[in-house]
Specification:
homodimer; alpha+beta; Thiol Ester Dehydrase, Chain A; elongated
């Protein structure tokens, strides 16, 4: 079990690398059927005639898998709690792609008004098995200090 | 069946309003179990002791539902295809909340190099049953012209 980290344990430049998750065509279609029912995410033949040129995962599916991989690898004691950020999809995710996430700490800003917490800006970079970036997300997180300190 | 829209059918200021989707606690927990396994998204009792003060949906769940509601209400003929944008969660989504999405066209930029398409900047605003904004997302979409024109 990884040690859980509080605000004072974090350093600018720290990186946390996740396990990998390999997507299947069935998983891509199932997510799309629930949340992003468009031909290029649901049907190989229909996808060939679109700008994707073949089945591609919903960006929201990539984002959701990125979140799970981050939760499992970036061990913040108070959890990964964000208010949003800039989200960019840079390359289609295909069946068989193995995704991995690197969480990097860009900035640590102690709260002026609430001494028990701070804001931490991180960059989550999701890559495929060829090291190509498929998504970046730069959220601002609320991170708490170790209680009783 | 709604008429499908191409680039030349769009106007700045046009709005498309979705149906509503009411979330259950079970649905919130199921999504979180798959993609965002943190106590405040999975367990009412554990959530009470966190900054959410009770069970709240994963932001990625709100985003995924927003996508489905958009796909069903914003009838782009070539599909809703985006490269990302600024994503903001402004208020927790709770069990029983009924979400609705308004898609608004902010800017239409014909491509200089590819005459068959343009870039369209939209704002997707997700509200709950009290009209409170829970999420905004401002993606850049690729939208195609009607073929053969």
């Amino acid at each position: 079990m990884q040690q859980k980290l509080w605000l004072e344990d974090l350093l600018v430049g720290q990186e946390f690398v996740s396990a990998t998750h390999r997507l299947t065509a069935d998983e891509i279609k199932e997510f799309a059927g629930r949340y992003d029912p468009q031909p290029f995410h649901m049907d190989e033949a229909a996808a060939r005639g679109t700008m994707f040129g073949g089945l591609a995962a919903s960006g929201w599916h990539t984002a959701a898998i990125t979140m799970r991989l981050s939760v499992q690898s970036f061990p913040l004691a108070s959890g990964i709690i964000g208010s949003g950020g800039e989200l960019t999809w840079t390359k289609p995710v295909r069946p068989g792609d193995a995704l991995q996430v690197k969480s990097e700490i860009l900035e640590i800003i102690p709260s002026q008004s609430k001494p028990d917490r701070g804001m931490v800006i991180v960059k989550l970079t999701t890559t495929n098995q060829n090291g190509e970036i498929v998504q970046t997300f730069s959220p601002k997180l609320v991170v708490f200090r170790r209680p009783g300190t």
